[in-house]
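During the reporting period, we have paired protein sequences with C-alpha cells. One record among many follows, to show the layout:
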Amino acid sequence: MEPVNVREYEALAREAMHPAAWAYVSAGSGDETTMRNNDAAFGQLEIMPRVLRGVGSASLSTTVLGAVVEHPILISPMGVHGLAHPDGECATVRAAGNAGTLMAVSTASSRSLEEISASATGPLWFQLYVYRSRQFAERLVRRAESAGYRAIVLTVDSPRWGRKERSMRVAETLPPELDYSSLDDEDLPEEEFEPAALTWDDVDWLRSLTDLPLVLKGILHPDDAALAVEHGVTGILVSNHGGRQLDGVPASIEALSNVVDAVGGRAEVYLDGGIRRGTDVLKALALGAKAVFVGRPILWGLAANGEAGARHVLELLRDELEAAMVLAGQPDVATLDPDLVMRRH
C-alpha cells in the first residue's frame, strides 16, 4: 500500500538502504537532542483557525527570489543522494520539477552540477561549502553560473563537521555510492576538502564574485541575521543543519520569529528542519518564513520508490498544507500572519 503520510516513508527507506548509508542519512550529532527537537517543537505550536470565511480552496503559489513555484515546499541541499537511489540527484530534481518546486543542490552531490541541471525542469539553487581553497569555491560558483543555477546558498554553520556518532560507528562499511561527483571533478587533494572557518569578509568576497543572489544557510541568532542583511545577503535560511552540527541549539522553528523580526523584510527568510506535515509548513509560513525546505523525507521517498517516491513526499506535504489552510480559514499563503499560531501553555 502506498504511504498516506510522509512518516510512513521512513521505515520503507530504512529497509531499502544499506545499513551504513541509513546511519549516514539519519544520524544527528552528539545525543541527537536538536535533531529530535526539530520535529517535536512543531507540536508545541497550535493553530488558531478562523471560521465562516468562505474558504473552500487555498492558493499555494509563491515566489522565491523571483522564481515562481507552485507551492512553498522546497528541497533542502543534501549530499550524496546516490546512497538512497542509483539515479541520485537526477531523480530528485526530476521529482522537484514535476512537483512544481525548487531544489537546492549540495556541493557534496553524487551527480555533477551539470548532470543535475540537465535533468531539471524547475529552478535550481547551488549550496556551497567553502573549503580551504578559495579557488576551488570560485570554480564551483562559475560552474553553477554556467549550468543555470539561480542562487548560491552558502552554508555558514560548518567550520568543522559535527560528530555524528551513529554514522561514525559504521563509516568504514559505507557502500561505494558515497561518491562526491562535484568534488571529484575538481581534482583536488583530499586534504583540501576540509571546511574553512569563515568570516563576514568571506561573505563579502562571495558577493563580489557573482551577481547571483546569495542565501546564508545556518543562521539561528537574530544578530547574525541582521548582520547578513548589512552584508547584502538576499535570503536567510534558518537552519541547524538538521541537527547534524552543534547539538543543543534551538529547533529551527523556535529561532524563526526572532530572525524574521531582525530581518524586518529586508531579505527573504526560509526555514528547514523537522518538516513532516503540511501543518508544520503552515506554522512556519505563519511565523514569517517565505518558504520551507524539506530534507530527510525527500531521501526517504527516493530510497523507497525513486523519483516517484520523492515526488509523492512533496505531493503529500502540498496536499496537507492546502487542506490545513482551508480548515484554518486561510485562502492564500501570501496573507498568513503570526496570529494564526499560538504556543501551547
Summary: The mean pLDDT is 95. The chain has one domain: 8-218+234-334. Residues 296-327 form the longest helix (32 residues). Residues 114 and 146 are 9 Å apart (CA to CA).
